[in-house]
Amino acid sequence: MIGWLAVTSLMMGIFPVATTEILPIGLLAPIGGTFGVSDGTAGLMMTLPGILAAVAAPIVTVATGRTDRRVMLCVLMLVLALADVLAAAAPSYWVILVSRALAGLVIGGFWPIGASLASRLMPEGQVGRATAVIFSAVPLGSVLGVPAGVFIGDLAGWRTAFITMGILTLT
After folding, report:
1. Comparing C-alpha atoms, which of 34, 170, 28 is closest to residue 91?
2. Could you tell me the CATH number of the domain that includes residue 15?
3. Shortest CA distance to 32 belongs to which of 89, 96, 86, 84?
4. pTM given for the model
5. What is the residue-level pLDDT of the chain in tens, covering all 171 positions?
6. Under a CB-based contact definition with an 8 Å cutoff, are residues 133 and 8 in contact?
7. Are 87 and 100 in contact (CB under 8 A)?
8. Domain that holds residue 127
9. Whole-angstrom distance, CA of residue 31 vs CA of residue 5
């Protein structure tokens, strides 16, 4: 029972990571309009975290190898919430890029840790099912989280969508 609670908790952590990662896709035009940048330039909000995640994954994994994984996941969630709040409060486009860089570091750190935990949390016969539950958060973030964020952005502004993600990340 405790193992499944941990698996569910991990899934609930991956949901805001996946949603924050791709949320700007639906908000490129309003964000770009706020800061007077083209849609192409606004698209750097997607490119930058992807590149940083690829670079950060091995570095964060090695650098934090002796740190308790639970502590690392909590720290990464706090950094993700900070990145979302920073994006919401950004006075300029460059500040948003800083927030997206932080998100990229979180993505790069969270995936290697999260991917390895199912085998540690569950007995051998349940690892496959636990892994499927953990990573079900990725399509849920794409199919539920992003459209909900864009809906919030349409109703109350893109900054509210990022504040909402920051709050969701902390819960």
Report:
1. 34
2. 1.20.1250.20
3. 96
4. 0.92
5. 778 888 888 899 999 999 999 999 999 999 999 999 999 999 999 999 999 999 999 998 898 888 888 899 999 999 999 999 999 999 999 999 999 999 999 999 988 887 788 888 888 888 888 889 888 989 999 999 999 999 999 999 999 999 999 999 998
6. yes
7. yes
8. 2-170
9. 37
Domain tally for the chain?
A: 1
Instruction: Show the tokens assigned to 155.
Output: 């109703």
Under DSSP, the state recorded for 171 is: -
Residue/partner pairs of 144-150 with CB below 8 Å, 24 or more apart: 145/15, 145/16, 145/18, 145/19, 145/23, 146/19, 146/22, 146/23, 146/25, 146/26, 147/26, 149/19, 149/23, 149/26, 149/27, 150/23, 150/26, 150/27
Residue 122 is given by DSSP the state: S
